[in-house]
Amino acid sequence: MSSKRMAGVTLVELVIAIVIVSVALAGLVAVFTRATRASADPVVTQQMLAIGESLIEEIMLKPFTIDPAPATSRADFNDIRDFDPKDDAQDGYATTGIRNIDGDPIPGLESYNVAVRINAASVALTSVPAGDALRVRVTVTHGAERLELNAWKTAPLP
Predict the structure, then answer these.
(1) Tens-digit pLDDT profile for residues 94-122
(2) Are 44 and 139 in contact, with CB atoms under 8 Å apart?
(3) How many helices (H) and strands (E) does the chain have?
(4) Sheet bearing 94-96, strands edge to edge
């Protein structure tokens, strides 16, 4: 009798191998799908940050001195308080959809909103009297997501 062994795999072994590979591939596809969906969120966050930073920069470039007659159009804002003339808990300048300085909507940014609140500092900052500091808050929203940026503007030294 010859004890010749046959090489190869049986049908049962082949089916088991296909099932194992299929389960592993399904797991990888699920991970890649989840990663792809989550990768859109950083884009929205980065866009919100860019919108907030650009508005904060625009506000911070305005002088601290307050003009007694506040402007009504963003293009005419000539001091920091034009963005929020009242020192209260309500937002001042706010838009639905992002707009340029002339008030024209910026294409692609219609789903973002922005609001500005400027209040006098409730406590004195280091070596700055309380009346000479303003807290600037810019809040950018996109759906349920919200991003708030804060800055301080102080009066120039005499």
Answers:
(1) 999 999 998 899 999 999 999 999 988 77
(2) no
(3) 2, 4
(4) 94-96, 112-120, 133-142, 145-154
**Torsion sign (Cα): 114, 52, 54, 153:** positive
Three-state DSSP at 146 gives strand
Are the C-beta atoms of 119 and 126 separated by less than 8 Å? no
Q: How far apart are CA 59 and CA 62, in angstroms?
A: 6
* pTM of the entire predicted model: 0.71
User: Which residue from 103, 82, 101 is spatially nearest to 92, judged by alpha carbons?
Assistant: 82
Q: For the CA atoms of 38, 43, 47, 49, what is the dihedral angle to 10 degrees?
A: 60
Taking CA atoms, 89 is separated from 8, 10, 82, 84, in Å, by 78, 76, 16, 10
Taking only the tens place, the pLDDT of each residue in 22-53 is 999 999 999 988 877 766 678 888 999 999 99
Q: Flag whether pLDDT at 11 surpasses 60.
A: yes
